[in-house]
Amino acid sequence: MGEDRSTAEIRQASTRRAHLALREAEQPLSIAELVAATGLSRPTVLSVLDDLTARGLVVPAAPAEEPGPGRPARRLRLDPDAAHVAGLDLGARSVRAVLADLTGTVLARSTVGLDPEDLLGSLRHALEEVDAGPDAAPLGAVGLSVPGLLAADGSVGSSLALPALAGRDLARELAEVLEAPVVLENDVKLAALAEHRLGAEADGPAADGLVLLRIGHRISVAIMVHGQILQGAHRLAGELGTQRGMRWTAGSRRGRLVWSTGDEARPLLERAATGDADAQQEVRAFCEEIAPRLAGLLLAVDPEMVVVGGGLSRAGEALLGPLRAALGSQLTGPGRPRLVPAALPADGSLVGALGRGFEHGSARIVGVPDVPAPWERIRRTLPSDPLTPDPRTSTDPEGRR
User: Fold this and answer.
1) Which CA distances in Å does 174 have to 1, 121, 124, 383?
2) What angle (nearest 5°) sits at the alpha carbon of residue 151, between those of residues 145 and 156?
């Protein structure tokens, strides 16, 4: 039994390696090139290719022109349309969808209005807007982002943004409709996942752990530890808002931040950026008020990085500078996490949902689990959404909770 399991694991690892080599290749590969790219033996590569071909994932490509006599080498490529993967981001007013081919190339995205009385219908409508019709590739998997707390069984426990989600096993319901596997996760946690996979490279070495601080109309937190979303025993890790009486600021109302400019912080931050002393003082006071609670969280998990996302992150140093200073006054130890703006301030949850869709669906699509998502190609090919408003405004898709 042990030998059989070991053999199966080796086989899966070989298949995973070959699939990734073909997926990342910029052009079709010969058998010799695939052997070199994977480090596998030629017999193993041939055997794995038989499996991938049988699943419809690998197809022959036109032989390359080669100098000299003899037959040109047989070349193979991954068929990008063997299966498609979708990401869905369910918000308080809209649903955003994105569809990618098997290589991670984004084919289309959409934003549709939400009907709170027909959540499934709204999700299907968003998918229909990115679907290519009856001749489209089969849907291999879907990742779904929701604004709410998830229960241990994967259902939605509660949602301030969408109370109708409470108690719904939306992943199961959607999977039955689509006849494809669906994985559901909290929107802020998916944004943290996307930031971990894609955001650290521009600001320094990749972070093993990070805390995403999303500041919009509310403040939300998600934590990555050892490259994985920290869930905890009850999926409540980082859910500071579930503590009775917890308020990030004394002036907040039912968890919503309130400013001298009302619910909207954008005018205030714009004045602070231009040097308005009163606006700068209000931003400093806000940062000093939230810093102690945030510092306690950072000392508990000791991340390498704090990523500030959500609508207010677009204010740049007008917010990040005072927050960095306020945290610095709270943390007296020798090491402090880097504090950086989100790389995906408006699309983190959507990109995270698509990436999780790839990871969750790999067993069905490729035949082996744990195939990493093509994160970088997703980011490179994701078009901006003309319907997505400025994240600093009240309809910020990443400022809701």
Assistant:
1) 37, 10, 8, 25
2) 45
